[in-house]
Structures are given as structure tokens and as C-alpha cells.
């Protein structure tokens, strides 16, 4: 597994930048939320890559296995996933209300319609 | 063998991310996002994170996609309109990405058992789960017992999100019926 | 969606299995992958599938909105209650060793109870989120009619 070297991290940074690009460039609010979720999942892969141990197995104690992957990042990311879905739900609810108030989910049209 | 699977899945993920960025149809982007979450779950299994893969498959490919589709159906949005010029954001993200890759040269290799993250308190957690708590799943033991306070905070966060959405979108009670009767 | 007989029949066969699997994942969280969060999401997905196929009104008769709102609070209450109970028995907040005579049994009891609290909260929050989104859409489409209409699910 150490043959991978740093490839995991480079893909993670590429995904992070893709998510960031979508958030900056896109004027559609729903697309921004999707970009934010891409950013979040890339951070999850970063943490789990740091915790992976070559030759280890999933952190469930069993006879015959002595090397386990690091369980601490798993716990942190479990929390992060659930918090991520909570913030996504709230963001989407806000988008629904913005649409009801301004008539569109596109940023430019909202700025134009603002009194 | 594991390395080849890991490489292939991660490359596929990068291609999928480019697809989501380039796609103008919002429904297509939502569907690709569901596939992206499922692929992430597969990568998590290769990285030995089975609990996390379970949660990501259920939450990412299930709940998140349903909520995005619900928002699309309520707002009726179909296509993303391209206004802005992409040159400056592209430059910014390239510079930040290059800086991150330069910083990653000092990081320990993936899979290194002597990495600092695997050394300090983690052996104590694994030992303690074997002797003090005696349940096989170390992640549940750490989540529920050693880091139980964080889990309480997390449950409160998801509860607050549920209340927040209730406040924003209403709970569609029969208010109008009573208004009609009065 | 009730017109699609294949969907209806398959859903009627699958939904009990989904709910049973969610219970399995909840109680086997200590022995394999699983636990409160995964079980809660799967359980909520079972109810959401039912609402997608058979309509929001039918689902609200099966699982009223009031019950959903009360149960979300109940889960957090169970979790925090275990913590406070530990304090009443002389330990610190969320200390499981004092819950029972044997510290290991106390740990097991504490873990089972809080995973239950987590599972209950996550299940009913997911169902509540779906009710909010689908109910808003239904009210937007039929603003003068309340409590009526079938197939008001989430078909985009």
C-alpha cells in the first residue's frame, strides 16, 4: 500500500479545488451546495488516508489479526458526515425560501430583484 | 493489488468531479453527485473504514440526493445559467492547489504505520477496548465511550438541523382549515 | 405513483425487510460495522420509500407528524439522560462504569442506550426533513386544499 505514496493526497487536493471552483464560479445556489458537498467528501478521504495502515485491517477486534487501521479518524469522519448532511439540509431549506421570496435560485437574478 | 484498486477508484472520482463541474443540467448534477457518494463509499472500504463507508453510502447516496431532488422539484430549477468569467477563479484554485501539493511533500506516505497520527493515543484506545470495554468494534467503543461527549454534540447538531428546517419550511398543519372555519 | 403496480408490490415486499435490516444494524453495532447513525438513516429511508410510493397523506396516517416531532426530542433526551443518570450514581457526566455493579457491564449498558438514543433521533429527523420538504411542495401545488390529495410525494 505504501506504493501509492502521496497519490491519495493529490487526488484529494484536486477534488477540493474542484469543489471550491464550483462554489466560486457557479451563480446557481443549488450547484453551490453540490460543490460544497464535493469539498466535504474530499476532506473525508484526506483524513481516512492519513489513518490507513499498510497491512492492517478494519478496526474490529478479531482473532488472527494484530494490525488494525487507525480508528480515530473513522470516528471523526462519522461525526463529520452527519453534520454535513445537517448543514446541507438547512442550506437547501434556505434556498427554497429564497426562491419563494425572489422568484429564482440564480444569484444574478436575485441581486437584480432585490429592492 | 489494493494499491491498483485504490488508484483506479480515485482516478474515476476525479473524472466524475470534472463531470459535475462541467454539467449544466441540475438534475444530471444531482444524479452524478449520488454516484460520486457511492464511489466515495467504495474508496472508504478500500481504506479499511467500513463504518464510515456504511454511513456515507446511506447518507450521501440516500438522504443528500433525496433532499437535492426535493429542492429541484420545489423550485423548478432546471439548467445552470453561466454568467461569470471563469478565468480568475481558475487561477485562484490552481494556485491554491499547487501550494497544497507543495505542502504535501512533507506528509507521511499513505499506509505508513509510524505516522504520528497512528502513534500517540490510538494504541491505548485499541488496548482499552480489548480490556475495559470488551466489544469487538473499536470505532463504536471510541464513538460511544471514549469520545461520547462529541457524539452528544453531534446528536444535538442533527436535532437542531431538524428543528431549523421545521422553522423554515413549516410542518404543513391544518392551519388554513381552522382559518376557513373561523 | 400508486398506478405503477410493480413498484407497489415490490415496495410492500421490501419495506419490512429494510426496517428489519435497520434494527439488525442498530443492535449489532458493537460486533460489526454499524451503530446508531447507520441504522437511523436506513430506518428513515424505509419510511421515505413508503412515502414516495404511496403518497405523503398515507404516510402521515401511518406515522403522524406530531409523533415524529416528539420522537426527535426523545432520542436526545435518552442520550443526555444516560449522562445525567451517571452523575446521579456518583460518577462524572457520561461515565458508564457506575451504571451497573460490574464496570464492563456498565460500559455495555451505556453504549447500548446511547446508540438507541442516536438511532431514534436520526430516524425521526430524516423523516421530519422529508415531511417538511414534501409538505412544502404539496402546499405550494395545492394552496387551498389541506389534508387532501394523494400521491403528493416527491416525484420531480
- Low-pLDDT residue intervals, each spanning 5 or more residues of chain A: none
Largest interface: A-B, 83 and 92 residues
Helix content of chain A: over 70%
Shape of chain C: elongated
User: Which structural class do the helices and strands of chain A define?
Assistant: mainly alpha
User: How many strand elements of chain C?
Assistant: 0
Radius of gyration of chain A: 19 Å
Give the helices and strands of chain A as they follow along the chain: HHHH
Instruction: Tally the helices of chain C.
Output: 5
Rounded to an integer in angstroms, the radius of gyration calculated over CA atoms of chain C is: 19 Å
> Quick one: overall form of chain A?
elongated
Instruction: Return the string of H and E elements of chain C.
Output: HHHHH
Q: Estimate the mean pLDDT confidence of chain A.
A: 90
Q: Span between N and C termini of chain C?
A: 12 Å
| Amount of beta strand of chain A | under 5%
Major sheet of chain A: size, sense and barrel closure? none
- Proportion in helices of chain C: over 70%
Number of strands of chain A: 0
* Distance, first to last CA of chain A: 58 Å
The parts of chain C where pLDDT drops under 50 for at least 5 residues are 146-156
**Integer average pLDDT of chain C:** 87
